[in-house]
Amino acid sequence: MLRALSTLGARPLGRPPTQFLLLARGRKTRHDPPAKSKIGRVATPPAVDPAEFFVLTERYRQYRQTVRALRQEFVTEVRRKAHEARSGVLAERKALQDAAEHRELMAWNQAENQRLHELRMARLRQEALEQERRQAEEAAREAREAEAWAQLKEREVLQLQEDAKNFITRENLEARVEEALDSPKSYNWAITREGLVVKPQHKGS
Amino acid sequence: MVQLTPVLYKAYHGGHLTIRLALGGCTKWPFHHIVASPNKCPTDGHFMEQLGSYDPLSSSYGKKLIALNLDQIWHCIGCGAHLSKPVEKLLEVLLAAQKTDTEATETRELTSVNIAVGTRLKSS
């Protein structure tokens, strides 16, 4: 049956040949019945030489004993190392050293903090003094400015009072008008680009 | 669906550390790394630690080059690692335990192993 199936692939059938089974040793599946030539067959295991068997078992036993002993040695070694690392003499010494180092570092840190605190306080005091000085200066400046402003206003007021003496009022209106009419003024002048006032040299121009 | 905690996972799936030869190299040029890796991983896959190497082609007058990190190997065995057959064969010269007389004669006559012990082999 298998030979017929294997020749199917060789014949061209118009499509690519599909392989149903691979040609391999032990071509029977578990569901195929045994062959007729194998009816009276009794499977016998290979004969055992007692001496060789004894030697082999002895050697295997010794090997396995050795390997087991070595494995136990290594296991105890690993456990001992773990125990030493956890709670041995060296570990304790190291722990003490670490604690001492930690204390030292904390003390140093404390000292540093103190020093920086001192510096900070000094700086803050300095800044406070600076602030006060600046405020005093500001106040003085403002006072000076206010005084100057007051003096300016006072001068203006005095100036105005003096000018008020020359104002034209209803009383001296007539007198001022007569005065203006009596004094003619010539507006016939020009100014150059340089700012020089140019008046006519002779009359009638 | 239930996700197992590591203890239960290990109890159910099992698996153990194995020291074995991981095949590398290319076609017609094999090279083995001696590697401690979990049992379930593929032989040349993820490993925990590299413990040496074995070059089967470096035979000058019947000698082969093997590198072994013995400290780490003893540590791994102490932590409960199994050994594969080829690794057992490589280490039996050190363990001083020959399985059979025929094997002993083979190891003595044909392949006199030249062991180069590396004390601090880092994994590549």
Automatic annotation (TrEMBL), chain A:
UniProt-annotated location(s): Mitochondrion
Lineage: superkingdom: Eukaryota
Keywords annotated in UniProt: Coiled coil, Mitochondrion, Ribonucleoprotein, Ribosomal protein, Transit peptide
Entry annotated with the keyword Cell membrane: no
Pfam families associated with the record: MRP-S26
GO CC terms of this entry: mitochondrial small ribosomal subunit
Predominant location: mitochondrion
InterPro entries recorded: Ribosomal_mS26
Coiled-coil boundaries: 119-156
UniProt entry tagged with the keyword Transit peptide: yes
Family the UniProt entry places it in: Belongs to the mitochondrion-specific ribosomal protein mS26 family.
Name under which the protein is recorded: Small ribosomal subunit protein mS26
Organism: Muntiacus muntjak
TrEMBL record, chain B:
Keyword Ribosomal protein: yes
Keyword set includes Cell inner membrane: no
Matching InterPro entries: Ribosomal_bS16 (IPR000307), Ribosomal_bS16_dom_sf (IPR023803)
UniProt-listed GO biological process terms: mitochondrial translation
Gene3D superfamilies: 3.30.1320.10
Keyword terms, alphabetized: Ribonucleoprotein, Ribosomal protein
Gene Ontology CC: mitochondrial small ribosomal subunit
Lineage: superkingdom: Eukaryota
GO molecular function: structural constituent of ribosome
Family membership noted in the UniProt record: Belongs to the bacterial ribosomal protein bS16 family.
Record's protein name: Small ribosomal subunit protein bS16m
Organism name: Muntiacus muntjak (Barking deer)
